[in-house]
Amino acid sequence: MVRKFTMAFAGKYQLESQENFEPFMKAIGLPDDLIEKGKDIKSISEIEQNGNNFKVTVTTGTKVLVNSFTVGQESELETLTGEKIKTVVNLNGNKLTVSLKSIESVTEVCGDTITNTMTLGPIVYKRVSKRIS
Questions:
Q1: Does the model's pTM come out above 0.90?
Q2: Contacts of 31 (CB under 8 A, 6+ apart)
Q3: 9 by DSSP, 3-state: which?
Q4: Residue 32 has pLDDT above 80, yes or no
Q5: Which of 25, 37, 91, 100 could form a disulfide with 30 if both were Cys (CB 3.0 to 4.6 A apart)?
Q6: Whose CA is closest to 127, among 6, 16, 3?
Q7: Is 23 helix (H, G, I), strand (E, B) or coil?
């Protein structure tokens, strides 16, 4: 049986660890009260995939962020601050890459672990989530 790499993203993941959450959120302009509320929440990310079409739902406490996109085509994505940006998500092997203004985001799947790294200038914010279903 040959398993396609592209289907490996689908699933539900719970945040396990994160690095540089507070400095990154401050840098993108999130208010201190939201940073304080969000830093200890173990967000749940659900990824649905049908070929090159993705729907990503991230639930952090009461906040739900939903983005749908097709790899290689311009899509409108909502950022962590609620801003909507037109951009193109690319798939390179097991990595989804996207530029959101000055933020470079790379999401990589490896087995049951998904790692999202967002870089804004010198600040690198890294989130590691484990598959729960």
A1: no
A2: none
A3: helix
A4: yes
A5: 25
A6: 16
A7: helix
